[in-house]
C-alpha cells in the first residue's frame, strides 16, 4: 500500500482545509486509517483514526468538534476535514494505514504504512 497525502496549505485562523490521503492497492478497505501530525520541535501526535468501514472514528481531544475524518473505500481515499483551524494546528500531517483496529492505532508506533506529509500552516 502506498499512501499519498495532499491538501495542506497556508490559511488563517478560523479557516478550513480538507486533507486527502489516497491509497494504492485493492485492499484499502482492509486497513484502518489514521492521521498524525508533527509540529516543529515536537513529537509526532495522534490526530484521528477511522475503522475499516468508516463506522468508527477516534479523535484527539484538541480537535474534537473541529475535525472530521471520513473515508470512501470506492475511491481508496480518506479525508480529514479541518474547520476552525488554530495556529496550534500548524504541523506536517501524515496519513497512515494499518490492519489493526483503528482504536489501537493512536500511539502511531509500528503502523504498517505511512504517507509523506503535507504541511498545514495556520497564521494568527
Mean of residue pLDDT values: 96
> What distance lies between the first and last C-alpha atoms, to the nearest angstrom?
37 Å
Element pattern in H and E: EEEEEEEEEEE
**Largest β sheet strand count, sense and barrel closure:** 7 strands, mixed
Coarse shape? globular
Helix/sheet category: mainly beta
Number of strands: 11
Task: Give the secondary structure arrangement, pairings included.
Blueprint: E1 3-6, E2 9-12, E3 17-23, E4 32-38, E5 45-50, E6 57-59, E7 67-72, E8 77-82, E9 91-98, E10 113-114, E11 118-123
Parallel strand pairs: 2-11
Antiparallel strand pairs: 1-3, 3-8, 4-5, 4-9, 5-6, 7-8, 9-10, 9-11
Provide a concise account of the structure shown.
The chain is mainly beta and 124 residues long.
Detailed description of the structure:
This protein is an all-beta fold. The chain has strands at residues 3-6, 9-12, 17-23, 32-38, 45-50, 57-59, 67-72, 77-82, 91-98, 113-114, 118-123. A hairpin with a 4-residue loop joins strand 7 (67-72) and strand 8 (77-82). 34% of the residues are buried.
Amino acid at each position: 500500500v502506498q499512501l499519498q497525502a495532499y491538501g495542506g496549505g497556508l490559511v488563517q485562523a478560523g479557516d478550513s482545509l480538507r486533507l486527502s490521503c489516497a491509497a494504492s492497492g485493492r485492499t484499502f478497505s482492509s486497513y484502518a486509517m489514521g492521521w498524525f501530525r508533527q509540529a516543529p520541535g515536537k513529537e509526532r501526535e495522534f490526530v484521528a483514526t477511522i475503522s475499516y468501514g468508516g463506522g468508527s472514528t477516534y479523535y484527539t481531544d484538541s480537535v474534537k468538534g473541529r475535525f472530521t475524518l471520513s473515508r470512501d473505500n470506492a475511491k481508496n481515499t480518506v479525508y480529514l476535514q479541518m474547520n476552525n483551524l488554530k495556529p496550534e494546528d500548524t504541523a506536517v500531517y501524515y496519513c497512515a494505514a494499518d490492519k489493526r483496529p483503528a482504536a489501537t492505532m493512536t500511539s502511531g508506533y509500528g503502523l504498517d504504512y505511512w504517507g509523506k506529509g503535507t504541511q498545514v500552516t495556520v497564521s494568527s
